[in-house]
Amino acid sequence: MWLVMHLPYPLLEKVQQGVTFFDIEPSNGELSTAQLAERTGVPAGTLRMWESRYEFPTPIRLPGGHRRYSHHDVDQIREVARLRSDGLSMSAAIQRVQQSARPIPVSVFAGLRERHPEVSPAVLTKRAVLGLTHALEDEFCARAASGFVLGCFQRERFFRQAQRRWSELTRTAELVVAVADFPERAHPAGAPIEVPVAETEAMAREWTLVIDSPGGAVCLAAWEHASETELPDPQRQFEVLWSFEPSVVRSATHVAAAVLDRFAPDVAEQIPTVLSPPGPPLGPELRFASSLTHRMVGYLGALLDPPKRAV
Question: To 5 degrees, how large is the angle CA 20–CA 24–CA 27?
């Protein structure tokens, strides 16, 4: 290196002409924020603002807190920029790119199982799931929180039984959606938007509650077990996923938007407009409390109303 730097300029120029300089890519396809900005043409400050406001792009965090991105992120950011230049809103552009990057899940439960395998399921009867759901709804009402609320009721008659409670939710929430085998779309004043889903759809078999609110976030997705014998209604069995982790709740919201886009695209388009930035990850103490609560609910459900396995 010393020899090259001290060569006379005409000779140095000739040496440089005979040398090929390679554009060395980061190992494992990991790019820094500056490298990502260079490759996409989007300034680093804008990328950080997108991440804070829209959770896009989603970097890998090194132990020191530095962000790292993949070449797939480059492609997605370029596509978002192209869609923005075509006139799409930022939220709509991100949603379209993210949906095209992975298959649309058939239900919220299926999407959560795929995206968050760390969330442990519990098998509970309908009576136990109903009690848990009512507790979550009551807490939301008590906080008078805003944001987005989704409920999957399977059958219209189940929604009608809860309609009064859900009308209360609409008093503060900005967007409340109920999905069931309704005969048609409806949006009565002071009530949730009623989105019909055919009985043949996978979503018609799940019981879901998503509350994505700045005042508190929670999601519950329950998948009904098939049974060869007809069980009494309170004894129907569900495999249940639920979480208070903000990132898991926001994943549930994104999955719900993707699934709803098949049945009610105009409703799905409204979801990003009512969302606030997700809260910070749960700390160790709250994560312990969440795991303990999850375990307690599973034990109490099994003790007070033991599920009966299908034969």
Answer: 155
User: Using CA atoms, how far apart are residues 283 and 93, in angstroms rounded to an integer?
Assistant: 32
Edge-to-edge strands of the sheet including 122-125?
122-125, 237-243, 216-224, 206-213, 148-154, 175-180, 193-196
Q: Where are the beta strands (DSSP E) in the chain?
A: 60-61, 67-68, 122-125, 148-154, 175-180, 193-196, 206-213, 216-224, 237-243
pTM metric for this prediction: 0.65
Length of the chain: 311
Query: What pLDDT is recorded for position 98?
Result: 75
User: Rounded to the nearest 10 degrees, how much is the dihedral formed by the CA atoms of 156, 189, 144, 138?
Assistant: -20
Residue 151 main-chain phi, psi, to 5 deg: -135, 130
Peptide bond into 57 cis (omega under 30): yes
Q: What is the mean pLDDT of each run of 10 residues along the chain (311 residues)?
A: 38 38 44 92 92 86 81 87 88 80 78 85 87 88 86 94 92 94 93 92 89 88 77 82 88 90 90 83 70 68 60 43
Which amino acid belongs to residue 252? A
Cα–Cα distance list, 55 to 77, 90, 172, 272 (Å): 12, 12, 25, 11
Give residue 10's pLDDT: 42
Please name the residues in contact with 83: beta carbons below 8 A apart, sequence gap of 6 or more: 92, 93, 96, 97
Residue 243: closest CA among 274, 286, 207, 205: 286
Question: What is the reported pLDDT for 227?
Answer: 66
What is the residue-wise DSSP string for 9-41?
Answer: HHHHHHHHHT-PPP-PPPGGG-B-HHHHHHHH-
Please give the C-alpha separations between residue 308 and each of 38, 95, 222, 224, in angstroms, as whole numbers.
59, 41, 17, 13
**Among the listed residues 230, 208, 228, the one whose alpha carbon sits nearest the alpha carbon of residue 219:** 208
